[in-house]
Design brief:
By secondary structure, the protein is an all-beta fold. 0% of the residues lie in helices and 54% in strands. Strands 1, 2, 3, 4, 5, 6, 7, 8, 9 and 10 form a ten-stranded antiparallel β-sheet that branches.
Length: 122
């Protein structure tokens, strides 16, 4: 049986996003905290920061923007997403992020827990 947990994000270390520029990730809840099915991550992209185009062949993402505004590439399209908007990225869809604003962008990203999580950088 898993144990319930309340974990302040301030106690979770930030790590640079692989291949990102001024982009950081925190694993808020994941396997190390006993979550059996999902991983909740918090991303911060600083002004001028980015995460380059990539895809995950076998996992979907659900994201929610907490603060700021960013350009988001989804497949062949792009759009600006802002605080209060939710995003669904199906498995296999290329995506990228750019913060062209003056404030950090912060968003939550929930992914399924799998044994074969892959990132293909494009």
């Amino acid at each position: 049986m898993n144990t319930p947990l309340v974990r302040p994000q301030s106690l979770v270390s930030k790590k640079p996003v692989q291949k990102g520029k001024d982009a950081f990730v925190q694993v808020l809840i994941g396997p190390d905290e006993g979550a059996p099915n999902f991983i909740m991550r918090r991303f911060t992209i600083m002004p001028g920061g980015s995460i380059p185009a990539h895809l995950h062949p076998s996992i979907e993402h659900e994201q929610y923007v907490l603060s700021g505004s960013m350009k988001l590439g989804l497949g062949d399209s792009q759009r600006v997403v802002t605080a209060g908007e939710a995003v669904f990225i199906p498995a296999g869809v290329a995506h990228w992020y750019e913060n062209e604003g003056e404030q950090p962008v912060v968003f939550l990203c929930v992914i399924p827990k799998t044994k074969n999580f892959e990132t293909e950088w494009l």
